[in-house]
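Thread: quick sanity check before group meeting

JM: Hey all, I'm pulling together slides for Thursday and realized we never actually wrote out the predicted structure for the chain we discussed last week. Dropping the sequence here so it's in one place. If anyone has concerns about the input, flag it before I start.
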Amino acid sequence: MEIYSQIHAMQLQSRRWQQAGQRISFVPTMGNLHAGHLALVEKAVELGERVVVSIFVNPLQFNDPADFAAYRRSLDADLDKLAPLEVDAVFAPPEDEMYPHGRDATTQVDVPALSGILEGEHRPGHFRGVTTVVAKLFNIVQPDVAVFGEKDFQQLRIIECMVADLDMPVEIIAMPTVREADGLAMSSRNSRLSASQRQLAPLLYQTMQEFRQHYLAAEGNIAQLQAQATAGLAQAGFVVEYFSLRRHEDLAPAKPGDRCLLLVAARLGETRLIDNLCME
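JM (edit): ok, ran it. Output follows.
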């Protein structure tokens, strides 16, 4: 497993693999790796002869400087976790390599149709930072296929839209959310929960499952079900930012008969949790 910190070196290696006719699969991450990330890497190993993982805490997607500063960096531990997984290269650049002219001066990529709702409403500029860094990483690594988790479902849809709109020759593969035994969606942010908050956190997914059961049984209208779920979470100590039923393909508000999913964001103390659940 080779470690690259410079763009030119990573691009050169990718070109060598391409010239040898080898398919490159790619998993972009911000590090602090957990079993959910490793499941994406294992899928990438199945999809290509060469596997690249990036580790870069992207400042452009943090609208809160304190959140960026608090994000855990654990490069050595991350490399130890990747070492047994047939990863050929890790691209782990410093910030000035990715943004040599500074954060504010770099060209940015925006997907306006999907970036201003849900997460985008609560985290202005977040998705512009995501699409900018993913576009750069695709140009650097030049993958044939890239693997993303469905936990960040809006992010997944936005990246799919960017790839289609900009004619990027990258196949996007989505993998199901990996959960803890108690149902909590795995996230790098979970380590910031206190012991009492960690005990409470699975209630988010439990509430989503209860909503799904009532929805499928047509027990009450959607607005009532959402209000009840939100009130229950608030009473338990969550600060709910959204609890929203959306159309699966384009995240528009769901209508009767649509294939839809529930998207949720809520805070426990200083930790922000997101999750989603398909209504089928």
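AS: nice. Residues 60 and 104 are 9 Å apart (CA to CA). The mean pLDDT is 96.
JM: adding both to the slides.
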